[in-house]
Design brief:
The chain is of the alpha/beta class and 554 residues long. It has 19 helices and 25 strands. Strand 14 and strand 15 form a beta hairpin. Helix 14 packs parallel to helix 15.
Amino acid sequence: MKTDIEIAQEAQIEPISKIAERAGLAADEIEPIGYDKAKINLDAQLNDRNDLGKLILVTSINPTPAGEGKSTVTVGLADGLNQIGQKTMIALREPSLGPVMGLKGGATGGGYAQVVPMADINLHFTGDFHALTSAHDTLAALVDNSIYQDNPLNIDPRRVLWKRVVDINDRALRHVTIGLGGPTSGVPREDGFDITVASELMAILTLSTDLMDLKRRINQIVVAYTYDKEPVTVADLGVAGALTVLLKDAIKPNLVQTLAHTPAIIHGGPFANIAQGTNSVLATKTALKLADYVVTEAGFGADLGGEKFMDVKVPKLGKHPDAVVVVATVRALKHHGGVALADLNQENLEALQTGLANLGQNIAAMQRYGVPVLVAINRFTADTEAELDLVKRYVAEQGAQAYLADVWAKGGAGATELAQAAVAATQESSDFQPLYQPDDSALTKLEKIVTQIYGGHGVVLADKAKKQLAEFAKRGWDKLPIIMAKTQYSLSDNPKLLGAPRDFDIHIREFVPKLGAGFLVALTGSILTMPGLPKHPAALDIDIDEKGNITGLF
């Protein structure tokens, strides 16, 4: 059996100019980067194109080590839509080097449902993440320089919010001390690193509508507090222009293709467990202007990326999904039902029945928004007919329909039935209802997320979180949308509670105000914004030969 990278390396990739032409972009509306990648100009005349196409959001059950294949289904579904004669594009996030070199892997799909050039996309791609890292750390240096240079803004070194970032999992950098080495080396203080995808600049990039909106949002970033506990912003530092300059190319969406030559826009990459988990507004809106159908995905399960797409991205996008596809695998559902990883290839209807509750909660969470919901069963060779029938019957009982997606082995040809069902679903009438209203309090928003999306009991705030909300109310920040930073493995904040637990509380230990992005991050449980590497990181298996051929990259 060929690996993903072997399949990708054997692909017949078309020149990016041909992909752009297929998408409806003129030659002067793209900036080619080599043979197979391009940036889309921000001044492309998209407003002269058709009205927004139909939007299909792909999300999933809560992920397990057994794998769900959300990106693979996204790519296969888009290729399937093109196969049945629908002009379709994809809008995806960019992979982070953290999971690529760590554990989870990339975000380019798999088998014969991939976006290419796979290796480039999973590694440095067009340099967007490097630009974000440089801009973020430039701001960090400017904050510390202001403190060092007589501290004109009266910044309290103990209350600096703006950490540094690096796009790799490095637990040793979570908590550090900087400024050591004497008077010329800065002011000593405690600091730390986040992974680049957790940077507020990443969130801002994915929510900005143009270059000046990017600059406006950067100005609003709160980087620290003064000794008088007043917020200090980038506007106070006067460096938004310099930071925007560093991001002037990164804000442009990236154009690539699938193995079947479906145009794909890949742009932005916030994680869904610590940020909003969606590709950029610019990417999705560009695709919607160019295609009749756009397939996009939100990170991790419907409880994280799905909810955040609906409640954070949709208001900025100005369009809600016309249909939602929830991806599940028999293997992952059996794991939610208590089966050990080593035993997942054995038929176990009892465990599957138990694990199906997780799928049911995620279906209900998406149905709550008033849009049609489908289920895609990402098929594995060990799946039995009895197991597949059980999933289909259960989904029907939840008021939805399940369809097999055999896209890893067959590409778009393995998703034509799903594609036809998705087209039909987008034609249905919908009554989109956001989870909460803008004027709802932060606590009300939190409670609605927990009770209606997670199926939990309520919210418990630590003393620090209570004090923060009181302070935020005084500053007018308490009505911002909520980004729940929560484990992806469970509907609760305990990663060991699989399936569909009930009567649990979500514990909020603190909030992080991200005014540039326009939301409050609620940190739950022991969620980390800087992951660590596993005992056997994926980097140990990656190699390259004298001809430049890469191996071990999935």
